Amino acid sequence: MNRINFETTPRIICQRGAAAELGALARNMGVTHVLLVTDDGLLKAGLADSAVQALRSASVEVTLYTDVKADPPETMILEAVDLARAAQVDGVIGIGGGSSLDTAKLVALLARTPQSMSSIYGVGLAHGPRLPLIQIPTTAGTGSEVTPISVVTTPTEEKKPVVSSLLLPDVALLDADLTLGLPPAVTAATGIDALVHAIESLSTHLKGNPLSEILALKAARLICDHLHEAVTDGSNPEVREQMLFASLLAGMAFSNASVGAVHAFAYPLGIRFHVPHGLSNSLMLPHILRFNQEAGQSTYAKLGRAIAPDLAGASDKLAANTFIETVCGLVQKMPYAQTLRDVGVTQKDIPVLAQDVMKIQRLLDHNPRPITIEDATALYQQAL
């Protein structure tokens, strides 16, 4: 057994309508003035209304930061930090997708303990303390509410992570009612993102551990059982709650085991073509699963038996093949782009993308099969 150092959010609340209790929750944490971090679209859709009302009803003052952008730019995060300091808030709440939650984490840290962004990129380089932090996801995908990671887009258009247990929030609050209006394409992309987290946390040969394995297998089964219905009938609260829970489990798994090649190949697509993270993962997932089919057979067999218990007595080869084909079939049903051409990538872009991904060895090293520049070129070509 590998050495285990498992960290996650200390308190998790999963309950429909739980956002209405946010004011009492903040008060019990000693918070009297929060910076609520979200994006303008979510605010206009009314998804933050119940949270804001609950806070104000509990006499918690609310300052809003609503300029969150996808793939949070460093300059935007620092802008939010400046607002938090100027307002003298004593707590931070993130509500929204992964970009809002990642931003809220860093605001809670930097508003309380100033330090330069450049000094904290990497693992364990940040120092605290931070402000009290509550995270409320409105998508079922990133699992950011239970991860010690924020990914930032630097001024040089690089994606760099800040990894520190200080970024784990005090509370993750999951309210499925906040996800009922999520559009089908967003539901699909974020759901596949969560599935990739489960798969890659299980298939890493460097940091895999028994706790992450249990969580990943459960997450994969929940997603394979419920994602298609969540996409086609987003008004079903039970299905939405199962997807939120699956995303949380997958987040707990990958943040303690790592992700791998799918994420590595996705990052250049996000940086160069501004493809949303979940979609870029989905575009590469089938090709990397098939590339890893033999090297990752035992892992994919476990996943196959998890999503199809009737495979309990099947060979590893059959169980692994069944899993891969099931996932590829699920991806094909999703209501969004299915090829790199659909998102603007052309043949001439392939060499640059391949060169970019080879620089992300921190993730490629976790893949079950080594990847060369020739492999990277071929994988992007297959996805074209």
Quaternary state of this entry equals single chain
How far do the termini sit from each other? Answer: 40 Å
Report the structural category.
alpha/beta
Sheet with most strands: 6 strands, parallel
Radius of gyration: 20 Å
- Low-pLDDT parts are none
The amount of helix comes to 40-55%
Number of strands: 9
**Strand line-up of the largest beta sheet:** 1-9-6-4-2-3
> So what's the overall shape?
globular
Structure annotation, total helices: 15
SSE succession: EHEHHEHEHEEEEEHHHHHHHHHH
Strand content is 5-15%
Mean pLDDT: 95
List keywords for this structure.
about 10% strand; alpha/beta; about 375 residues; 6-stranded parallel beta sheet
Briefly, what is this?
The chain is of the alpha/beta class.
Structure characterization notes:
This protein has 384 residues and is α/β, with parallel strands linked by helices. Helices cover 49% and strands 11% of the residues. The protein contains 15 helices and 9 strands. The chain has helices at 22-28, 40-44, 49-57, 74-87, 98-110, 184-203, 210-232, 237-255, 261-273, 277-291, 297-307, 316-332, 350-357, 361-364, 373-383, and strands spanning 11-14, 33-37, 61-65, 91-96, 122-123, 133-137, 149-153, 159-163, 171-174. The strands form 2 sheets. Strands 1-9-6-4-2-3 form a 6-stranded parallel β-sheet, sandwiched between helices. Strands 5-8-7 form a 3-stranded mixed β-sheet. The protein is globular. The two termini are 40 Å apart. The model has no long low-confidence stretch (mean pLDDT 95).
